[in-house]
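fold-stage: in
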Amino acid sequence: MDRSHSPSETLVPLKSKRGTKVVKNYRLVLIGKTGEGKSSTGNTILGRKAFATAAYAEALTQECTTEKCLIDGRQLMVVDTPGIFGTGGSDKSTKKEILKFLGITSPGPHAIIYVVSMQERYTEEHKKAYEHVKDMLGNHSDTHTIVVFTNRDNLEADGNTIEDYMNHVPVPLARLISSVGCRYVAFNNRAKGKRREEQVEELIQKVDDLIEANRGLCYTSRVFETTEKALVAKVKYEVDPILMQSSKDVAKLREEVEIKRGLIETLKKSAKLVKPQIDKETLEFLQLRVVNDGKINQIQEECDNKVEEIRDNLRHSIETNKVSVQQEWFTSGLKSIAGGRLQDIIET
């Protein structure tokens, strides 16, 4: 959302130490990682709370927001952008929104204010955030960049100065400062009155020096377009071999698919020719199975009858033998009895 106002609505004058009467139009863009204090820095420059801020590391700024003010004879347009690696959307949508500042500040910003907090250690994510900016804007953006360190009040509360801090910065941050021509200032975004004005004037002096070094030229969309073309060429250079290999792989896969498709068609035709023969053989097998099943049943029945016959014969034989044994036993008994009686008669 563009919340630009006419200069008469938002002019916040500061006392001029240089006494200049010339009104200059300066366009400043605030860029940085989420939670580093971009919006607070913008409010310090404007001298009022124009941009939404929070005391926690959440991306409040989702769209480019514009405010204006008058400082020391200079009309300033300040653009706040969404935080890099924020929580409000994808990297792609964030990048698209950030780059809207090119149209808002047309023909381009005089200074890119890169905001870094001194409250926490400079981490790998900080390093990647600045690399992300360089990928978007290109190396040319270095000549238009000023670093603003926030949380100066915490630094001073520990009895340290910005010079002390700079003497102990990690190598990646030292390289960043060097790449932008050692242009940096430190802000206490809680400062009021004269202390705030002094900080802002120090920043404006850095902007003056930067514009003079760039011969009045701003960071233009032409520079961005050159960067974009270079980036596209780089991506094309890196991606083309992959695409070529992928094309070869796809062609090979298509060839294999066509071969397999032909094989499937051949198998289908063969199946149509073989199917009648298979059906005939299957029918003959089933018919033969019916006949065989009948024979098996007949043989089973004959076996059962034979077994029953044998059982009957066996039972008959047993009964017959039993009677014979009983008769033999009875005859033997009679003879024994008769013999005894006869012996008794003889003895008598």
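fold-stage: in (second)
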Amino acid sequence: MQKIVFIVFVTIGVSCTTYCPKQCDCDIDNGLNRALCDDQNIVSIDVGVSKAVQIYSLRRNLISELQNFCFKEIGYQSLRILDLSHNVIFWIGMHAFSGLDQLYHLDLSGNRLRDIPAEVFWDTPGLDILDLSGNIFESLKNEPFITHNRLQVLNLNSCRIKFLPPRLFNRLPNLKKLDLSENYFVTFNIDIIRPLMKLERIELRNDYLHCSPDIIAAETYIASQRIAYNKLCTKKLPKISEKMISMVTEREPVNIDGIWNETSEKNRTEPVLQQNKTLTPFEKFDKDFSAFQAFVIGLEVGLAVGVVGTYVWLRRFCSCGQLNCIAPRRRRPRNRNDEVRTNLLRNHFVNVDLETPPIFRREMPDRRAPGPPTAPVYETISPRPTRDPPSMADVIRRPETPPPPYHECRLNI
């Protein structure tokens, strides 16, 4: 029975035990429960950390916004230090920090905040330190930036602030330290810090601030209120009487006779007229030459070079001397044999009455009785009476003039 009771208690104890998430490192710092969940690409504040956490660090993650009542719904009501720096937070709900009554240090530096509600930190009554450096508060309205009765330290370093409205810090009565360094404003008015009655230290380091009358007046007021401050105008300005004395300087008497030579004879010499200097041809050309003439000469030289280049190109690449060259047609040289074949074929179809072309009459042997040799007898063809033209078959069967081979029956004209 005792063993069963012991096992039940052990099981209950194991089930109630909470473990530290894999993304975090959990330890104790100055007696406070700390959870460090840095550089883990976390996109939400709820990663499974115990509700008893008091120091919660979510630096360098990917958290983009804080919804209303996000900490209260999870149960993180024991938080005292919350670090959300170097995320991508661009929006914070009006009641995002509701339920964090014990929170006294909040770090939102290095985010993308451009504007926040003035009452966003009203749900954290114990807030003492607020770090908003590295955000983008370029344009601020002439109204209270933050409303809080207990806030003591405010860091607005490197927030790209271009102008400081007079009512910016009217609702921070207990503010003691203010950092406005590394911003873009070029003037500073005393009315900005007049409502801060408990201010002990202010930082105004800025490359755009110069020793203007407004800055000198602000530094005088800061010094009169015994506020710690690194002065920008370290050079002491002289008083009015000192300015008048410094402006009037005594000079030694000057001997005019030694300078002007009024009483000496050297001054009585007549002025010598300056002779005209002979100019060289180059100097004369440089004097008379104008920009318009240079333009005209350059244009003429360019045209001449273009014409010469075009002529050389035509002579080089066009053998005919023209821009578009067309090669002449070459006629095939006629051959005597071709002319013979052409006439032969033409006679068979044109002069069908001729058995043999006139120019190719051959010698016909004499068919008379043999005897002594006589002179050769040429056969003459007498014109026959008109008759119907023979057919193509009769022309082809004539044995006197055999047709030429098939591959030579071409008309080469």
